[in-house]
Amino acid sequence: MTTLDTSAPATGKEAARAKFAGYFVGLSRWKIGEVLFWLALVGAYFVPDMNIILLGHILIWGLFAMSLDLLLGYRGIPSLGHAGFFGIGAYAAGFLGKYGWTEPISGLLFAMAIAGAVGLVTGRFVQRVHGVALLMVTLSLNLILYDAVHRATDVTGGDDGLQGIVIDPVLGLFRFDIFGKTAYWYALIVTFLLFLVARALVKSPFGLSLLGARENTRRMIMLGAPIERDVSFVFAISAALAGAAGALLTQTTQFVAPSALSFDRSADVLVILIIGGTARLYGAFIGAIIFLFMRDWLAALSPVYWYFWIGLLLVIVVSFFRRGVLPTLETLLQRLRAR
Q: In terms of residue numbers, what domain contains 133?
């Protein structure tokens, strides 16, 4: 009487599973450049005469651009209305601070939840819309929201902004000061933690599914990937991160105005992402550094025409850094190593 040997198939499955797990372990391993990047942000605080307030805004804009990168870079979904989620988070944190809920961390989480819920609904609404129609839908939703906030002067304060926002010290110990020191550390820690979430997401099987759908949606459908569900989920995550950026800006400045939802803000964050490079996460922060430092410097040189020079910078980047600054530098570095 013979017996079946089932050890070989089991061993094969275990080897495949181990190989699969090892791939994602290697993918998620931190590189020295990543560690140096975050250490540089910590060390920048101790540089004499450093503009800490500007650095804090760079972190917030970088987080905002990273949220758009999840949509545009990793899933290939363009949006001209991403400022809507930023503004929702900003006003959610502002209303909490104005009407008695002044604890910053819980206020931040609440703002993320509200923005994420709106993003989930939006994702379900636009998941079957593509191309120019998608751009028009996202832009229209943003403009509708902006107009509603702008007109509701009794509730939002209109152009004067939401007044009377009060934010307690972080953890009851660290009060926000006019020099931006507490605001910088608060923004840095929150941005880093949310970056870890985004990094784990894009380096997971879900992240590979997003990239696959970006490259060939029909093939991913044939493979059985839940494309429509993924769109709703990534919209919710992206909106929550954008809402966190808006809430950070409100809490650190204790002010919010309708400009948080304006089309200009959606355009600026798109420019930041194009400058830095898409599908990199770090490209959002590199773009924010270049854009905000250039804007601050050019505005001091030419308060009226500084946007012209920003436009010229964008033309140069598109002409010589086709995929953005960070991907181009990575390619050059790889060529140098090959030599």
A: 50-262
